[in-house]
């Protein structure tokens, strides 16, 4: 075979072997701006105490929410907590997504996501590895593996720290798991999260929200330092004992809804629940 | 020498041809031309080309914007539509409680946010029917392409408008003579020709110039539940300062047992 033929075949081989990598999957890399057109009041100013509307919490989840005091967040130990991955994508801050490939094979090893607020950094392993054993460390972002289903990135997360599903005290246990899906449509990306928690939820909690592509995004660092905001006796942790939280009805009264609705539960998310409303 | 030049030209032609084939495939994947046939093949009906099955009954799970969806918000409460402009707020302020229950709350741009069940079926190979029990509305999703003159007969403006639908195949999909339809993908629907109606039950308006773009995604959750997520982009140059973007999720139901049609009030 002469050099010309070899070069020609090599070029064709390069094109053939290179084409799957070029066209194989949707590109979701880049900077994404969160869209707050849904649940704006919950996600930006913050949720009201006792607003559990539509959430499939069980009795244990409700009790944890009712015993929570916002003053907890003034404790130095709580001031620099990032959102867990079960909540971070609904919180504030630009999202950056980038990939990490093996320099020799160009195979995708992992996808990183980073949200500026409290430096929420997730690593999503794409190399087919297993999740670690149950006794492995639990973290705010958990351990994530991902795969593609068509154009959607699907991520499964375990090993989460005990956290929250809403910023008004609705708790998440360390037995919870999260499934994320990222669907890109043009310059919009719809993020789906499905949380399963055998401790505090009666059925999976699904949420969907959007991001818009930022062509020229940037991100600032988010250093966080703790201070003593309120001087308290050592060991004091703000809370309410069962039945002692007098603020729980405020939200229901303010918006003119029965407590049966604002206290949540899976049935409050169904259309037929409207028939129980005044 | 001449032979060498001929061989080189032949090689360049081969490489260019192959790149052309790949690029053509890529474009088809990107724009989601339905069907496995590929360039030059007979067009395939939308039902046959469907990468996902949207038919069946789906129930909306309302755990977002609950206060503005499950009950009629108070007059002038437009706080959940943050891009509503001053003109829009002025119109919303003209609403009163006697107008509650109007069919204007069930126009295409607001319908998918209502607490409802959806029933999706095929009218024919290129026409999908989407019905809601809330407000007893019917949307027709047309997969037919424009005629040879590029025209589409959209009919008279209506509450549900005219919806043009197309499947979006995964970017990795390669149409070809032996290719099967992919098992994943999504549906894109663009709706125009709308009558003025409401984004919220309390009269937050959208105008006749509204363009609604929607993306339907179906998938299975780890526990086996089947979900439909509809991402909606409402563009209205009259009452909105920017696009209004939401995503609504629906869980598949095994049957039609909970279908509960309730009519709205035609004004």
Report on the architecture of this protein:
The complex is a heterodimer of chains A (278) and B (267). Chain A is α+β, with helices and mostly antiparallel strands. Chain A has a domain at 30-214. Chain A is built from six helices and eleven strands. Chain A has a nine-stranded mixed barrel with strand order 1-2-3-4-5-6-9-10-11. Chain A is globular and about 60 Å long. Mean pLDDT of chain A is 92; it is low at 14-22. With 267 residues, chain B is an alpha+beta fold. Chain B has one domain. Chain B is built from five helices and 13 strands. Chain B has helices at residues 2-31, 46-49, 66-69, 86-92, 108-111, and strands spanning 56-60, 117-124, 127-132, 134-135, 137-142, 162-168, 186-192, 197-198, 205-206, 211-220, 226-235, 244-253, 262-263. In chain B, the strands form three sheets. In chain B, strands 1-2-3-5-6-7-10-11-12 form a nine-stranded mixed beta barrel. Chain B has a two-stranded parallel ribbon with strand order 4-13. A two-stranded antiparallel sheet of chain B has the order 8-9. The chains are: A alpha+beta (278), B alpha+beta (267). Chains A and B meet through helix 1, strand 6, strand 9, strand 10 and strand 11 of A and helix 1, strand 10, strand 11 and strand 12 of B.
Brief write-up:
The complex is a heterodimer of chains A (278) and B (267). Chain A has 278 residues and is an alpha+beta fold.
Keywords, please?
heterodimer, A: 278 residues, two-stranded antiparallel sheet, B: alpha+beta, 9-stranded mixed β-barrel, 18% helix, 29% strand
SSE pattern of chain B, N- to C-terminal: HHEHHHEEEEEEEEEEEE
Helices of chain A, by number, come to 6
Question: What gap, in angstroms, lies between the N and C termini of chain A?
Answer: 86 Å
Task: Write the element-wise H/E pattern of chain A from the N-terminal end onward.
Answer: HEHHHEEEEEEEEEEHH
Shape of chain A: globular
Radius of gyration of chain A: 23 Å
Cα-atom Rg of chain B, whole angstroms?
A: 23 Å
Give the overall pLDDT of chain A as a whole number.
92
């Amino acid at each position: 075979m002469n050099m010309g033929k070899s070069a020609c075949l090599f070029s064709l081989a390069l094109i053939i072997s290179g084409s799957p990598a070029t066209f194989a999957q949707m590109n979701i890399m880049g900077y994404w701006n969160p869209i707050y057109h849904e649940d704006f009041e919950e996600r930006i100013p913050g949720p009201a105490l006792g607003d559990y509307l539509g959430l499939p919490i069980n009795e244990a989840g409700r009790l944890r929410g009712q015993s929570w005091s916002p003053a907890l967040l003034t404790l130095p130990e709580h001031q620099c907590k990032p959102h867990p991955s079960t909540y971070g994508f609904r919180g504030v801050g630009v999202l950056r997504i980038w990939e990490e490939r093996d320099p020799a094979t160009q195979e995708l090893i992992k996808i990183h996501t980073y949200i500026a607020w409290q430096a929420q950094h997730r690593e999503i392993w794409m190399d087919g590895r297993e999740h670690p054993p149950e006794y492995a460390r639990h973290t705010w972002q958990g351990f994530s593996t991902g795969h593609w289903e068509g154009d959607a990135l699907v991520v499964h997360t375990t090993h989460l720290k005990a956290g929250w599903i809403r910023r008004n005290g609705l708790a998440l246990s360390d037995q919870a798991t999260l499934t994320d899906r990222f669907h890109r449509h043009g310059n919009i990306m719809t993020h789906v999260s499905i949380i399963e928690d055998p401790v505090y939820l009666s059925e999976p909690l699904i949420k969907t929200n959007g991001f818009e592509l930022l062509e020229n995004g940037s991100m600032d660092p988010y250093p966080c330092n703790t201070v003593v905001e309120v001087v308290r006796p050592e060991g004091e942790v703000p809370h309410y004992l069962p039945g002692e939280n007098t603020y729980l009805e405020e939200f229901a009264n303010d918006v003119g809804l029965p407590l049966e609705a604002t206290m949540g539960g899976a049935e409050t998310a169904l259309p037929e629940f409207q028939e129980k409303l005044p | 020498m001449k032979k060498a030049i001929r061989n080189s030209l032949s090689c360049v032609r081969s490489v260019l041809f192959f790149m052309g084939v790949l690029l053509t495939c890529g474009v088809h994947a990107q724009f989601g031309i339905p069907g496995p046939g590929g360039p030059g093949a007979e067009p395939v009906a939308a039902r046959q080309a469907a990468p996902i099955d949207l038919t069946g009954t789906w129930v909306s799970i309302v755990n977002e914007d609950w206060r503005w969806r499950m009950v009629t918000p108070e007059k002038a409460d437009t706080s959940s539509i943050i891009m509503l402009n001053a003109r829009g707020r002025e119109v919303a302020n003209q609403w009163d409680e006697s107008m509650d229950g109007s069919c204007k709350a069930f126009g295409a741009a607001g319908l998918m946010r209502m607490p409802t069940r959806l029933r999706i079926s095929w009218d024919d190979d290129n026409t999908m029917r989407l019905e809601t029990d809330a407000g007893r509305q019917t949307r027709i999703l047309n997969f037919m392409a424009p005629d040879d003159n590029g025209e589409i007969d959209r009919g008279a403006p209506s509450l549900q408008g005219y919806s043009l639908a197309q499947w979006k195949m995964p970017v990795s999909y390669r149409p070809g003579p032996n290719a099967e339809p992919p098992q994943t993908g999504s549906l894109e629907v663009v709706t125009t020709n709308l009558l003025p109606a409401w984004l919220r039950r309390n009269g937050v308006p959208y105008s006749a110039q509204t363009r609604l773009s929607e993306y339907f995604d179906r998938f299975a959750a780890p526990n086996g539940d089947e979900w439909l997520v509809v991402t909606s982009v409402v563009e209205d140059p009259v009452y909105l300062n920017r696009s209004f973007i939401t995503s609504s999720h629906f869980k598949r139901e095994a049957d039609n047992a909970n279908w509960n049609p309730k009519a709205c009030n035609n004004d």
